[in-house]
């Protein structure tokens, strides 16, 4: 995606810590349920079933981790004919990481073991991050970029089929005299808006949708795009994400209609 010339400066403050630490995940700061080593196995299994857990830490107090129970650790012992009755008899070695570690340093551990315990600055276990937590986090981080890419590709497809290179050149930022525009890929998102805000050019799209409403949506996406490109570690607001989802679906429908009517 092209950066906008003269792009608005972010209103966000400068971030002191540029590292995306695992402590930013909600699950990393939510004290996990645990059981003592002598907990009856039936009780431990019931905790896992009723809470839909795949892992259950075995601990004494908030700092001393003895191990972790998993469905695999239980099943492997049962398969070997072991007669287990308490938690310590089915637990396996646990895996942990410090709360100030980079999220990316935890990926390998979670990929191999499906979880990692998080130890805080006070040496207590502050949370547990699972593979599903990681999947959700990367979806939240990646979705705005993927949606913006889809929106831009839809817009490029429509524009490239209706306008000549000369018309595309006319939409270029007039202050950017050195840049040549020979195809729609040479335009910025702001220049897409400049191209289509003209009624005569809009008419060339041959779309039976309201130009004013569409241009307002284009402008909303442009603003959100600028926010996304400033890489706010907290992501964008849910309402902005919904705006991107809705506009992408709208463009998908237009493409389907265009193909049917072609």
Descriptive overview:
By secondary structure, the chain is mostly helical. The chain has two domains: 22-134, CBS-domain, CATH 3.10.580; 138-261, no CATH class. It is 46% helix and 10% strand. It has helices at residues 41-51, 71-79, 107-113, 131-162, 165-170, 189-196, 199-203, 211-228, 238-261, and strands at residues 55-60, 64-70, 96-98, 115-119, 125-130. The strands form two sheets. A three-stranded mixed sheet has the order 3-4-5. A two-stranded antiparallel ribbon has the order 1-2. β3, α3 and β4 form a beta-alpha-beta unit. The relative contact order is 0.13.
Structural features:
262 residues, mainly alpha, CBS-domain, 2 domains, 3-stranded mixed β-sheet, two-stranded antiparallel ribbon, 9 helices, 46% helix, elongated
List the helices and strands and how they pair.
Layout: H1 41-51, E1 55-60, E2 64-70, H2 71-79, E3 96-98, H3 107-113, E4 115-119, E5 125-130, H4 131-162, H5 165-170, H6 189-196, H7 199-203, H8 211-228, H9 238-261
Parallel strand pairs: 3-4
Antiparallel strand pairs: 1-2, 4-5
Approximate helicity band: 40-55%
Strand order of the largest sheet: 3-4-5
Q: Work out the radius of gyration.
A: 26 Å
What is the averaged pLDDT score? 88
Structural class: mainly alpha
> Which stretches are poorly predicted, pLDDT < 50 over at least 5 residues?
5-11
Tell the overall outline: elongated
Oligomer: single chain
* Head-to-tail CA distance between termini: 29 Å
Q: Determine the strand fraction and express it as a percent band.
A: 5-15%
- Count of individual helical segments: 9
The largest β sheet comes out as: 3 strands, mixed
């Amino acid at each position: 995606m092209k950066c906008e010339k003269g792009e608005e400066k972010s209103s966000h403050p400068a971030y002191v810590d540029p590292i995306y630490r695992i402590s930013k995940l909600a699950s990393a700061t939510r004290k996990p349920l645990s059981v003592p080593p002598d907990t009856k196995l039936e009780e431990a299994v019931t905790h896992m079933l009723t809470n839909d857990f795949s892992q259950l830490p075995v601990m004494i107090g908030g700092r001393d981790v003895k191990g972790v129970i998993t469905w695999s650790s239980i099943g492997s012992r049962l398969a070997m004919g072991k007669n287990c009755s308490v938690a310590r008899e089915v637990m396996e070695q646990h895996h942990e990481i410090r709360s100030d570690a980079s999220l990316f340093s935890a990926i390998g551990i979670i990929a191999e073991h499906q979880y990692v315990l998080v130890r805080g600055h006070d040496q207590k276990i502050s949370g547990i991050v699972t593979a599903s937590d990681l999947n959700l986090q990367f979806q939240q981080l990646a979705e705005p970029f993927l949606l913006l890419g889809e929106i831009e590709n839809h817009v490029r497809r429509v524009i490239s089929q209706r306008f000549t290179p000369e018309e595309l050149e006319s939409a270029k930022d007039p202050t950017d005299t050195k840049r040549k525009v020979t195809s729609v890929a040479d335009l910025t998102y702001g220049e897409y808006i400049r191209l289509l805000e003209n009624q005569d050019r809009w008419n060339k799209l041959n779309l039976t949708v309201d130009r004013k409403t569409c241009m307002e949506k284009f402008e909303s996406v442009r603003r959100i795009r600028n926010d996304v490109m400033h890489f706010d570690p907290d992501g964008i607001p849910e309402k902005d994400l919904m705006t991107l989802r809705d506009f992408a679906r709208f463009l998908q429908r237009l493409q389907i209609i265009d193909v049917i009517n072609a």
